[in-house]
């Protein structure tokens, strides 16, 4: 307690030092606490399921396509024959249904599951019950809802069991309420059933199921993968080229965000190290000025351990203040992260400074309190008791220590600047990617109808109503959202031999005739779809340039015949898949996000869908003359004048759609850029402070140099040369470490190499410029010393 009281009095006498140290530590500790809370929630915390470490995701791969889902027949074979698993369950993680009869019509988010999913996860109902095995053979009678839906949409109705919901035009009785499963199914409103009798469950090429299995304790993932692959190869020629993969469920959920988060965590650690070095410089300067106090303590019998205890106490007080302020800063950073689409990070919501985050902060404070005690105790090693007691002067610091700190600070800043520079260039290049259509003045929305009740006439009337809206230049519908998502399809060519075991897989979109003109995608050859391309006309097809160049290089694609099988949840066959004539070639419109390379795409007339499923839900695109946000209310009113029960969801501008696809990349850029900026500021402060303190210890030297004729410019050059030499050493070492970090970041880069020379040169130039500015001010001030005053002072 005596040590603590003395530490408080000492800090009160040096408010400038205390404020600088506390703020510097708060920045480093707060950033680390915020990022660690996210890392702990996403990467370290186990999944909240029974035996979560034995839950695995099963996928299928082929020579042509990686990471496919599992088809219905393959799942049935796994379920019946696999012996490596205690439980097997299939899911369709996301689809929508129309909810009417309870106020304004809207869509609800659904997940389709088989009967073993809840036992496999160890999830039990909050109220009521789940479906019985017999009920999985009957569709659209009972429904199980989520706690989230019960609370937000049904007002926590205590009599919810037995309540009737009208979903997709059918009355379904609520039989149970399930707890939320945010890690695996974050947005589920309704738990639907995967009914085995549905036709799309019997197409072996329809790889749309996500399969989860609980591995037996006696089996290994490698053994399970071999067993499942053998089952596939026994199924028939369509599956003999497939390979089953078994991956931990947690790793599957986290995906490539692990690398992203670990890089961000490394960045904040570097910020903390840089800040700690700044505080170390402050402590060295402060303890050098306390030479008389240290000498008196040693003379009175204080040993090294006793002195160390005092210094650790003083540091711990600083760190407690810094940690308290840092936690406030961490909370603000977490809130900022939420506004920057932290939801793009899986398992991140809800997020906050939790128990592990607080414990991590305490550990940092304790470790740093001991580590920072090195600075004052190093003074004891060279303390001259006689001179310190006689003169009361400050003790000159060891210049080698200061030089090492400057080099280390610049090194850390160089690593962060290179990493941030690579992300900045990648983001800039992504935004310059040509999407193949005009983004501005384009409004989008999702139009969901009752499944299989939507008709071509309905959508024709809807497009007519929207097109007649004042300020609207055109309207169209499509099953895909350009630059965001699309369906996949297998294609069969008339003009060549096709391998059934290795079908060609491409992206596919059903569109209305006005789609390309509304989005302003150029026609390269042939024609667009017309209103005559309906179910009674010959089936036609439009391909993009990438498709034509890949499959008909040097040939005229017009007139070629291709059969297209667009598979997926809910699709039904009305007949055999026939060949379609290619009538047009359009430019390469991006169907996946901008940072994904363009791939072959086929476009089909939405009136020629053999599966009769496309009318269940389509994406609306509206081209406006002014800001599309201003037209959203008018467009909604126009559609409701046609059908008051028509839900319109996810109404956004195309700029917002593209922004959402780049949310994770933007989050990395903002975080890394912010941390790099902090490190640069701390580095500049550290270099300035170190040079200034070094010059304050060399007053007599500068006085002598001036007295014997040294010009002021010569003194400035000498100091600048020393400071820039140290900074240059730090830059060189930092660039070496940056090569390693950049290699680890390759998965986050776009359009540039990890060794991009321009980024490295720009980072080095920025650091050297900042170091030069930080050196010049104290050098100019120190060189103005009066020789007579300097000699008299010494």
Keywords for this entry:
17% strand; 794 residues; 24 helices; single chain; alpha+beta; 48% helix; six-stranded mixed barrel
Structural account:
The chain has 794 residues and is α+β, with helices and mostly antiparallel strands. 48% of the residues lie in helices and 17% in strands. The strands form 3 sheets. Strands 2-3-8-5-7-6 form a 6-stranded mixed barrel. Strand 6 and strand 7 (170-178) form a beta hairpin. The radius of gyration is 34 Å and the shape is elongated. 43% of the residues are buried. Residues 392-397 have low confidence and may be disordered.
Short description:
Helix content is 48%, strand content 17%. It is of the alpha+beta class and 794 residues long. Mean pLDDT is 83; it is low at 392-397.
The number of helical runs is 24
What does the average pLDDT come to?
83
What can be said about the biggest beta sheet? 6 strands, mixed, barrel
Per DSSP E runs of 2 or more residues, the count of β-strands stands at 21
Q: Class by helix and strand content?
A: alpha+beta
Strand content: 15-25%
Q: Termini, distance in Å?
A: 39 Å
The percentage helix is: 40-55%
* Order of neighbouring strands in the sheet with most strands: 2-3-8-5-7-6
Outline type: elongated
Q: Which spans of ≥5 residues are poorly predicted at pLDDT below 50?
A: 392-397
Radius of gyration: 34 Å
